[in-house]
Amino acid sequence: MAQVPMTVEGEKNLREELERLKTVDRPKITEDIAEARAHGDLKENAEYHAAREQQGLCEARIREIEGKLAESVVIDVTKMPQNGKVIFGVTVDLLNVDTDETVTYKLVGDDEADVTGGKISINSPIARGLIGKEEGDEVGIQTPGGEVFYEIEQVHYL
Predict the structure, then answer these.
(1) Model confidence at 143, in pLDDT bands (50, 70, 90)?
(2) Residues 6 or more apart from 148 whose CB is under 8 A from it?
């Protein structure tokens, strides 16, 4: 079983979703199935089949989340030495050397990644290029449009 890194926030979000699935969605689906059964003939009962499909999707998601949580290693960067080094879970301010644009990314696990929210996967090219570097370092990242150079302005251990 491979261990998967996860931020404290990522674990919290998965646990909240799991709780909602088990305490809200699952009982609602069970009620929907019972109500659809009461309508009679199950072979041609679209409501029944839709509710059973929802039940399958809900149970699959519960198993998926439980599996992810079982394999996860939660990393709390607030308890790490704050030495300006880029590691999993930190937030990094980067300055594009060519355009003088600043971008901020949080390095997270694959399941937590949301580029529009400023969260990039630890396995992305940018994150792989940043890991182990320090504030003030200049890093060349290979992109589809060519190599882009960034300066690491600041590393936040939030």
Answers:
(1) confident
(2) 96, 98, 140, 141
Q: Confidence band (pLDDT; 50, 70, 90) for 42?
A: confident
Question: Rounded to an integer, what distance in angstroms lies between the CA atom of residue 91 and that of residue 84?
Answer: 11
Sequence-ordered list of residues with C-beta below 8 angstroms from that of 55, at least 6 positions apart, any chain: 26, 29, 30, 33
Of 3, 20, 14, 1, residue with least CA distance to 112: 14
Q: Which residues contact 60 (CB under 8 A, 6 or more apart)?
A: none
DSSP code for 95 = E
Apex CA 22: angle with CA 17 and CA 25, to 5°? Answer: 85
For the chain, what is the radius of gyration of the CA atoms?
22
pLDDT in the model for residue 1: 57
Could you read off the pLDDT of 24-37 as tens digits, one per residue?
Answer: 999 999 999 998 88
Q: Are strands 91-96 and 146-156 parallel, antiparallel or unpaired?
A: antiparallel
